[in-house]
Structure formats: C-alpha cells, structure tokens
Amino acid sequence: MSATRLLLLGVVRTHGQANGYLVNAELESWGAEKWAGLKPGSIHQSLRQLAKEGLLDAGEIHEWPERIDYRITEKGTAEFLRLLRSALSRPDHRPETLGAALALLPALPRKEVITLLRERLRAMEAEHTEILDRAAERGEPSHIRELLGMRAWSTASGADWARGLIARLENGDHVMADEGDRPGGTVLILEP
Description:
Helix content: 55-70%
CATH class of the largest domain: Mainly Alpha
Number of strands: 3
Number of helices: 8
CATH architecture of the largest domain: Orthogonal Bundle
CATH topology of the largest domain: Arc Repressor Mutant, subunit A
Structural class: mainly alpha
C-alpha cells in the first residue's frame, strides 16, 4: 500500500476539489515530506496517475491554463476508505502508511475507528506472543535473540500506543466524521 496514494486521495476528498498546488501545500503543512517521504515534484504526476485510474476526475481551470483541478470519484472514495481502514486495522504496514491514516483519521466515524484499532491491537498482541514463543522455543544465536527482542519490544510498544489511542477516542478526543465541528480534545505528546 502506498502512503502517497492514501494521502492524495484523502486531501482531495477533504477539500472536495483541489489542484496539485493546494494538495502540496496541505501536505507540507502536515510535514508529510519528512514522515511520508513525499517529494513535491511527484505529487502532480501521482495525481495524474490517480486520474488515469479513474480514482480522480481532472478538469482544467479556465482562469489558469494548464492548472488542473481534481475531484474524487466514487471509485476513488471506495479506494480511499479501503486504504484507510486497512492502514488502521493491520499492523503490517510501513510506518508512513500508518502516519497517513492518522493524518486522515477524522474521515471515519469514531466507533468504526475504535473497531479498526482493536483489530490492529489483537493482531499485534498475537504477533507479540508468537515472537516470545519463538524466542523461548529455540536456541537461537545471541544476535537473533537481539532481533527477536527488538521485534517483541516494537510490537509491545505499538500495542501500548494503540491501547492509548483507543482510550482517547473512547474519552471523546478528536473530532470524527460523524460528529461535526467541536473542540478536538487532547493530543498525546511524549516527553524525551
């Protein structure tokens, strides 16, 4: 799954209509070039590709020749929601894909996000148990035990984070798709 694909579809969907410059500015304001590895020059090309696939409609802006506005199609909305749900529920995605899903978290209703995160949590807990069982069963070389230890720590840490986000959502933090405008609640900031 591509974080770029999820982000571009999400930004166009959020704005209703957007050109490449608006999409780029929005993603820059999120710092996405750092955490998602986006390159500003590739955004226009990626938008054209999404339009070619029928996920976006492209139309020229008459006042600005050569500038193209994009709108998400029904097919694009379905793909966006599929990617978003997958990124939230499955822990096997790359970190930038989860980052993209978190940036677009308010696109889904609260209860659905909690359900998806619980799926993620169950998968992470199962993976953690599997890693610990493997480490206990075999006489692995010490460097492989380090690898297993790192994976166990990473999985446990991810599960702790997911539990925390679920709790914050259950407490009403963040404005979600089914709630309209209201104050956004608290954000977790880790101290160094």
